[in-house]
Amino acid sequence: MSLDVKLNVSDVSDVSDVSDVSDVSVTWNYKNSEISFPIGSHGGAVYSKEYKLIVIMNYYPNELRLDMNAYMLDGTFKSAILPYDRYNLMYGYLDRNSSVRSGIVVIAGYKERTENFYDWQFEVDLELFKITNRVAPSY
Fold it and tell me: What confidence tier does 60 reach under pLDDT thresholds 50, 70, 90?
């Protein structure tokens, strides 16, 4: 099994595309150094152009658990991302959404249908380092 983990970092001159080196890590190059982090058997990463941070998330299907961290481009740990504090959610995967400041959302599900949907996009707030606003349904 191979994960297709890529980040859109083309307009940052010191970072090359993030790609997986195996099914258990995510790798990118920054200033001629290769940076690699384990992501487990399920996981993903998204680059925030606005904050110049890489968010890495390990996925735990069907669990109410969030394992998400923000890293600076040189691989230095910046902060853990805290879960949404209003409801217990099942976190699915990272995605992009240009309507939120960080450009990153996490797709998460409620146990019961909420406003006709189970799965929603939630903002990954990279100022507060937590999951905040429910942005839009996820189809």
Answer: confident
CB 75 within 8 A of CB 39: no
Structural domain spans, the chain: 19-137
pLDDT value at residue 75 = 94
Q: How far is CA 9 from CA 48, 85, 95, 125, 129, in A?
A: 9, 30, 15, 19, 21
Report the mean per-residue pLDDT for the chain.
Answer: 81
- Facing residues of 93 across strands? 107
The 10s digit of each residue's pLDDT in 11-43 is 333 344 444 434 578 888 888 888 988 887 678
Q: Report helix, strand and coil shares of the chain as percent, to nearest 5.
A: 0, 55, 45
Q: Tell me if 45 sits within 8 A of 57, measured CB to CB.
A: yes
> 27: Cβ–Cβ under 8 A, 6 or more apart, which residues?
18, 19, 20, 21, 34, 35, 36, 37
Burial class (CB in 10 A: 0-12, 13-18, 19+), 62: exposed
